[in-house]
Amino acid sequence: MPPAAEHSPLGKSSEYLDTYTPSLLFPIPRAPKWAELGLTAASLPYRGVDVWNCYELSWLLPSGKPVVAIGEFVIPADSPNIVESKSFKLYLNSLNQTVFADCETLRQTLAADLSAAAGAPVAVRLRSLAEVQEEGIAALPGQCIDELEVAIVRYGQPSPALLRCDPNRRLEQVLHSHLLKSNCPVTGQPDWGSVVVDYRGPALDPASLLAYLVSFRQHADFHEQCVERIFLDLLHLLEPERLTVYARYVRRGGLDINPWRSTDAVVADNRRLARQ
């Protein structure tokens, strides 16, 4: 089994290598965090992916000329491991002075290395800056709940007891908030994100959802586990016909992490937001 997060490069001084070093990738098992939520690999109540975007990707052509691109990496939510984010950055940095015959050779190399670390097939797409620029900036779907009047008294621990719904009224609804914040469980650094809840079922009270999301503000956990906790708490409350929860996190170290969890097959809209 891969070592735990405290043995990763997070929070430690690291040498930045600029020649290809796949051994820098540090996998962290998902199983212990699943266990905290009462889950196992065989009992996951969701499907999903973790979409990573890399804005600091560069390598050399055979001529010695550098290339820059934006990388998209899609890791299955049921993969045995996540990839620790600083190790991911160090690994990508190791490509800077490495020659690849062409873009496809690099893509295949990235897919092989990341799949080995995650323990499951990882999809890789390399995009030009012009391609990403043409997509523009996206807006989240549905109703933004951030202007609702709520009194906040809990910040340190996610509090599902704050959530309320009307079991006598059923609807289809998409709600989003930009007020999600949690902390890295190793370094304590803040993780900022926007979250979307898309469901069909008993009417969820939007103000209660906002108070609940803010209760993560001092909570220490990885991006993926925060989204899984939100998904599970809503699943238990609503028992919905369908439910999708996803978060678009602000990048750190040139990487942003975007977990999607759903009762249905996931089609991730990976257009960047204003804060990304």
From TrEMBL:
<comment type="function">
    <text>Catalyzes the NADPH-dependent reduction of 7-cyano-7-deazaguanine (preQ0) to 7-aminomethyl-7-deazaguanine (preQ1).</text>
</comment>
<protein>
    <recommendedName>
        <fullName>NADPH-dependent 7-cyano-7-deazaguanine reductase</fullName>
        <ecNumber>1.7.1.13</ecNumber>
    </recommendedName>
</protein>
<keyword id="KW-0671">Queuosine biosynthesis</keyword>
<comment type="similarity">
    <text>Belongs to the GTP cyclohydrolase I family. QueF type 2 subfamily.</text>
</comment>
<dbReference type="GO" id="GO:0005737">
    <property type="term" value="C:cytoplasm"/>
</dbReference>
<feature type="active site" description="Thioimide intermediate">
    <location>
        <position position="184"/>
    </location>
</feature>
<feature type="binding site">
    <location>
        <begin position="83"/>
        <end position="85"/>
    </location>
    <ligand>
        <name>substrate</name>
    </ligand>
</feature>
<feature type="domain" description="NADPH-dependent 7-cyano-7-deazaguanine reductase N-terminal">
    <location>
        <begin position="16"/>
        <end position="126"/>
    </location>
</feature>
<feature type="binding site">
    <location>
        <begin position="85"/>
        <end position="86"/>
    </location>
    <ligand>
        <name>NADPH</name>
    </ligand>
</feature>
<dbReference type="GO" id="GO:0008616">
    <property type="term" value="P:tRNA queuosine(34) biosynthetic process"/>
</dbReference>
<keyword id="KW-0521">NADP</keyword>
<comment type="subunit">
    <text>Homodimer.</text>
</comment>
<dbReference type="InterPro" id="IPR029139">
    <property type="entry name" value="QueF_N"/>
</dbReference>
<dbReference type="GO" id="GO:0033739">
    <property type="term" value="F:preQ1 synthase activity"/>
</dbReference>
<feature type="active site" description="Proton donor">
    <location>
        <position position="191"/>
    </location>
</feature>
<feature type="binding site">
    <location>
        <begin position="252"/>
        <end position="253"/>
    </location>
    <ligand>
        <name>NADPH</name>
    </ligand>
</feature>
<dbReference type="InterPro" id="IPR043133">
    <property type="entry name" value="GTP-CH-I_C/QueF"/>
</dbReference>
<dbReference type="InterPro" id="IPR029500">
    <property type="entry name" value="QueF"/>
</dbReference>
<feature type="binding site">
    <location>
        <begin position="223"/>
        <end position="224"/>
    </location>
    <ligand>
        <name>substrate</name>
    </ligand>
</feature>
<keyword id="KW-0963">Cytoplasm</keyword>
<dbReference type="Pfam" id="PF14489">
    <property type="entry name" value="QueF"/>
</dbReference>
<dbReference type="InterPro" id="IPR016428">
    <property type="entry name" value="QueF_type2"/>
</dbReference>
<dbReference type="InterPro" id="IPR050084">
    <property type="entry name" value="NADPH_dep_7-cyano-7-deazaG_red"/>
</dbReference>
<dbReference type="Pfam" id="PF14819">
    <property type="entry name" value="QueF_N"/>
</dbReference>
<comment type="pathway">
    <text>tRNA modification; tRNA-queuosine biosynthesis.</text>
</comment>
<keyword id="KW-0560">Oxidoreductase</keyword>
